[in-house]
Amino acid sequence: MRYLFVLLASLFISCSNDGSDDNSETPPIVTPPIVTPSAFLSAADLSYLPQLDSKNIQFYNEKGEAVQMLTYLKSKGLNTVRIRIWNHPENIHSSFEEVKSFSNKVKALGLKVWITVHYSDTWADPGNQTPPKKWQNISYAALKDSIRVYTKKIITEIDPEYIQIGNEINSGFLFPYGEISKNETQFIELLSEGIKAVRTNSNNTKIMIHFAGFNNSDWFYNKLKSLDYDIIGLSYYPIWHGKSLSNLAENLTSLSEKYNKEILIAETAYPFTLDWNDWTNNIVGEESQLILPDFPATEVGQKNFIDNIKAILKQTNKGIGFCYWGGEWVASKGPEAKDGSSWENQALFNFQNKALPVVEAFKID
Questions:
Q1: Could you say which DSSP state residue 114 is in?
Q2: 73 phi and psi, to 5 degrees?
């Protein structure tokens, strides 16, 4: 997700800050599902939640009653929590220790754990795949061993139901070792090391390979035909990946059928307003970034967008679910913070930390 933030300076936000919403739109028609509830992942990436909990940030249900977020979202149908992990971050957040503790908390509530391994000390995305500092300038053989040992530790100590080997690895990962344009063979070998570490140490964890968007996705997954993985995971944000849901649906079907893999949307989100709640520039702040007229930046528009994403996945033969990204990332550093949340208007909670109608989309009919 780090590539989200490098675009901040070029984006603009609206100047209004009243948090009001027009909920009068007629919802677009959603085709009834064809996938059984038990087969569907209804997930959210809540990686910021431990950090927010450490600040005692309070969240509220639709009635304004204080709630514990995990318990509340589970009551709305959430069944899986996605959590990012960094090798040696600059602080405790997204570290192995925090992720392990958070995963145990998630499991204790009967929710599934989905770990997204960035194989970096910070954000990894299509343009940024920096190896952990401790892995830089080591031999290629030592790097493969490091991947094996680290991935094994995640599997044996956290035991997730799902694991991503890399995050949005469109151009490879662990640059320059595994950069596709420079050494495609090493890219495949490095992925294979992570996959083997999972298969050797777990009979239950499903392996996902994650690509941002769907343009060129066939080119990418065609390179992975020799690898043993279970799930194709795509990011989908209209601002970067196109505004046609029909194109998205066609690509999901094509990929899943061609490669005989389960498929899901590993990251998506949509704004409930174009207003802002702190002085940190928001990723989405203009109507030109929306899918209009179907999905305006309102509470209803946000929910309808996710309802349609869910419906598309349910109608895809091997579609198994979706994951909402940044739903917990509310403004938490004060109304004038310039280093707060660039995602506050795409959260699952409004500017008073009250649950939005979109949480109802986690229910599997």
A1: E
A2: -65, -35
Q: Token digits for 340?
A: 């707060």
How many domains is the chain partitioned into structurally?
1
Q: Is the dihedral of CA 255, 261, 266, 272 positive or negative?
A: positive
Please say if 168 is a catalytic residue.
Answer: yes
Annotate 193-254 with three-state secondary structure. Answer: HHHHHHHHHCCCCEEEEEEECCCCHHHHHHCCCCCCCCEEEEECCHHHHCCCHHHHHHHHHH
Q: Which of 98, 168, 262, 344 is catalytic?
A: 168
CATH number where 97 lies: 3.20.20.80
How far apart are alpha carbons 95 and 97 in whole angstroms?
5
Q: Which domain holds residue 351?
A: 3-362
pLDDT in tens, the chain (365 residues): 444 433 333 333 333 333 333 444 444 444 433 433 446 999 999 999 999 999 999 999 999 999 999 999 999 999 999 999 999 999 999 999 999 999 999 999 999 999 999 999 999 999 999 999 999 999 999 999 999 999 999 999 999 999 999 999 999 999 999 999 999 999 999 999 999 999 999 999 999 999 999 999 999 999 999 999 999 999 999 999 999 999 999 999 999 999 999 999 999 999 999 999 999 999 999 999 999 999 999 999 999 999 999 999 999 999 999 999 999 999 999 999 999 999 999 999 999 999 999 999 999 87
Residue 328 among the catalytic residues? no
What are phi and psi for residue 85, nearest 5 degrees? -135, 130
Active-site residue (options: 98, 193, 262, 267):
267
